[in-house]
C-alpha cells in the first residue's frame, strides 16, 4: 500500500509496478504549482510526487524531468565521458545499464491514482481503461497508484497491439501482422524472423518452438508448410498473445500452445529457440526477452536439446553476438556449451541488424552494436 496526505486528509491505495520497483518511502501531493526544478530535485531524492492537478500538466512535468535527467552539468558529463572512454566493453555496458536504471527511477516519480474501475479523476485525463485492462486484467475495484511513465507505456503497448507489426515473412498484407501484448517483446527486429523464414527445413512434419513469445516464429513455420508446431512458454501473457495472433492468422489448427519451461515432451525433427541475447539481469518483465542473467535459457536449451531432437533432426538457435562484443560471453564459451550438450554445428546463417541503434554513433554501446551479427545456428546430434 501507498499513503499520502492531501488537503488535510490521509489517503491510501495499492501500489502497482510492472518493473517490481518498491513504492517510494516518501510521497507528497503535487499539482500544477510545483516548479519543474523542485520536482526534479525531489525525484532525485526518491520522493514520489502524487499528482492532483491537471493530467496533461503532469505529462508536461514528466517531459521536463526527462530534459533535466538527460542534461548533465558540464563537469559531470566530462567525468562520465572520461570514465566511459577508459572502460572495457563490459564495464561500459554495466555503466550504461546503471545510468538507465537511475534515469528510470527519477522519471517514475510522478504518480497517478487510478480508481477502482481504472478511471483517473483528474482534469483532462484520458480514458485508459482498455489499456489497463489489457495489461493488468479486469479492474479489482480497489484504487491503485502507478507511475505516469508506466501508464504511458501501457498506452504505447495498447497502440502497438491495435496496429500490429507487419511481418513480410508471413506473406502479403493484410494477413501478415503480429499484434504484441503488453509485456511481450515485439518482433520489430525482423532480421531474426527472416533467418527462420529462409533456412532450409529438415522436415515439415513437426517442429517445437521453445519460448513462443508473440507466436511469430510458430506462425512463420506453419506458413512455410510445417504440419504441426508445438510451442511453449512459461509466461501466461506470452501464451495469451500467441494464441490471439495464431487465431487471427488462421493457424490455431496447426500450432499447439503449452505452458512449459523450455521443451514439450517428446522429440521433433526441428526444434527452434530464440533465447534472450544478453546475460544480464532484467529490470522489468518485457526486458526478459532481451536479458537473461547467467544465460539460463540459452544453457537450458543447449543442455536439453539432444534429448528432444530426432535422429537427423536440427536445432535452430537464433542468437546475436552482441554479448560477445560487450565481453559478456565468449564465442569459445558458446561452442563449449554446444559440445557439452552432445551437439555439433551443422551450419550457420548470419545477418546484420537493420535497427536504428546499429547506426547511431551517439549510442553508448555503438561500437558493439555496429559490429553485431545475428545468427541462426543449425545444430545436430554429435
TrEMBL record:
GO terms for biological process: methylation. GO terms for molecular function: nucleic acid binding; protein-glutamine N-methyltransferase activity. Residues 1-26 are annotated as: Disordered. The keyword Methyltransferase applies. The lineage of its organism: Bacteria, Pseudomonadati, Pseudomonadota, Betaproteobacteria, Burkholderiales. Residues 1-20 have a biased composition (Polar residues). Residues 202-282 form the Methyltransferase small domain. SUPFAM superfamilies: S-adenosyl-L-methionine-dependent methyltransferases (SSF53335). It comes from Acidovorax temperans. It holds the Pfam family MTS. InterPro entries: DNA_methylase_N6_adenine_CS (IPR002052), N5-glutamine_MTase (IPR050320), SAM-dependent_MTases_sf (IPR029063), Small_mtfrase_dom (IPR007848). This is Methylase. CDD domains: AdoMet_MTases. The keyword Phosphoprotein does not apply. Keywords: Methyltransferase, S-adenosyl-L-methionine, Transferase.
Amino acid at each position: 500500500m501507498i499513503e499520502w496526505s492531501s488537503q488535510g486528509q490521509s489517503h491510501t491505495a495499492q501500489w502497482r509496478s510492472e518493473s517490481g520497483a518498491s513504492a517510494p518511502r516518501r510521497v507528497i501531493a503535487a499539482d500544477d504549482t510545483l516548479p519543474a526544478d523542485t520536482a526534479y530535485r525531489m525525484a532525485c531524492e526518491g520522493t514520489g510526487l502524487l499528482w492532483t492537478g491537471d493530467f496533461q500538466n503532469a505529462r508536461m512535468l514528466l517531459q521536463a524531468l526527462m530534459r533535466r535527467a538527460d542534461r548533465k552539468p558540464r563537469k559531470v558529463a566530462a567525468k562520465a565521458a572520461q570514465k566511459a572512454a577508459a572502460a572495457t566493453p563490459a564495464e561500459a555496458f554495466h555503466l550504461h545499464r546503471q545510468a538507465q536504471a537511475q534515469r528510470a527511477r527519477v522519471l517514475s516519480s510522478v504518480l497517478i491514482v487510478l480508481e477502482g474501475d481504472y478511471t483517473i479523476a483528474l482534469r483532462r485525463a484520458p480514458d485508459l481503461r482498455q489499456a489497463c485492462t489489457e495489461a493488468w486484467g479486469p479492474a479489482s475495484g480497489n484504487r491503485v497508484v502507478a507511475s505516469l511513465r508506466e501508464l504511458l507505456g501501457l498506452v504505447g503497448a495498447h497502440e502497438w497491439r491495435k496496429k500490429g507489426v507487419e511481418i513480410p515473412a508471413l506473406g502479403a498484407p493484410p494477413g501478415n501482422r503480429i499484434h504484441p501484448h503488453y509485456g511481450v517483446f515485439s518482433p520489430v527486429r525482423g532480421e531474426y524472423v527472416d533467418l527462420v523464414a529462409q533456412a532450409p527445413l529438415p522436415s515439415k512434419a513437426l517442429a517445437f518452438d521453445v519460448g513462443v513469445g508473440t507466436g511469430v516464429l510458430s506462425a512463420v513455420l506453419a506458413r512455410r508448410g510445417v504440419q504441426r508446431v508445438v510451442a511453449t512458454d512459461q509466461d501466461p501473457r506470452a501464451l495469451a498473445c500467441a494464441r490471439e495472433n495464431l487465431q487471427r492468422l488462421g493457424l490455431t489448427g496447426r500450432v499447439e500452445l503449452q505452458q512449459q519451461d523450455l521443451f514439450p515432451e517428446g522429440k521433433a525433427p526441428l526444434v527452434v529457440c530464440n533465447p534472450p541475447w544478453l546475460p544480464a539481469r532484467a529490470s522489468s518483465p518485457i526486458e526478459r526477452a532481451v536479458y537473461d542473467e547467467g544465460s539460463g535459457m540459452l544453457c537450458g536449451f543447449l543442455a536439453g536439446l539432444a534429448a528432444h531432437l530426432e535422429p537427423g533432426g536440427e536445432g535452430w538457435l537464433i542468437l546475436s553476438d552482441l554479448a560477445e562484443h560487450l565481453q559478456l560471453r565468449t564465442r569459445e564459451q558458446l561452442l563449449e556449451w554446444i559440445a557439452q550438450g552432445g551437439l555439433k554445428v551443422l551450419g550457420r546463417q548470419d545477418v546484420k541488424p537493420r535497427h536504428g541503434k546499429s547506426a547511431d554513433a551517439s549510442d553508448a554501446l555503438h561500437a558493439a552494436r555496429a559490429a553485431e551479427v545475428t545468427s541462426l545456428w543449425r545444430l545436430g546430434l554429435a
